């Protein structure tokens, strides 16, 4: 797909949705096409979760989790072409996608103090990217509702549980992790319930979000649809 142009995006595209909807791939692809920055906020929560597990802290112990989070040395880039996620200067891209972190991240991300810390940092990164590149595509579960509610384009991706489980299982297999579709589907549904019912920043679409069901759509089709919406809303241009 041809790029719209380097640095063409003005403002923030907030992309939310549960796992397995193609959110990361779509967000990266959209950022590349627009010459924009890219931020995976979920990776930030996973880094904190990894730090919690390495510290031997129970993810259900909110006070202890917050103490770990306050001392985490977390590094994350905004290059959609690829940038390492760091914990204490160590690349942990693969480890944060493992089953132990996946099983614990919902509990860690539900801690209000952890969310306060990371949302503040996310907003700072967004501001920096807008100043240098003009725009940024940010993905997560509360971007349109909490992190960047002023974003001129909010997108909420959905897909059937079966489709999401199949995608997650294929991704795990490609990255050397052993899983089954049934186990992955159960995990997807567990996280959906946890994330959508938590008291702080629950997973839900913003009232003005564009909802896109990716169950039967390939990545190129989703990107084409979103690029058209970006153009229609006048978010492409030289002025910033």
Automatic annotation (TrEMBL):
GO terms for molecular function: ATP binding; CMP kinase activity; dCMP kinase activity. Keywords: ATP-binding, Cytoplasm, Kinase, Nucleotide-binding, Transferase. The keyword DNA damage does not apply. InterPro entries: Cytidylate_kin (IPR003136), Cytidylate_kinase_dom (IPR011994), P-loop_NTPase (IPR027417). GO terms for biological process: nucleobase-containing small molecule interconversion; pyrimidine nucleotide metabolic process. It catalyses: CMP + ATP = CDP + ADP; dCMP + ATP = dCDP + ADP. ATP binds at residues 17-25. The keyword Cytoplasm applies. Pfam families: Cytidylate_kin. GO terms for cellular component: cytosol. It is found in: Cytoplasm. SUPFAM superfamilies: P-loop containing nucleoside triphosphate hydrolases. Its main location: cytoplasm. Its EC number is 2.7.4.25. Residues 13-231 form the Cytidylate kinase domain. Belongs to the cytidylate kinase family. Type 1 subfamily. This is Cytidylate kinase. It comes from Actinokineospora spheciospongiae.
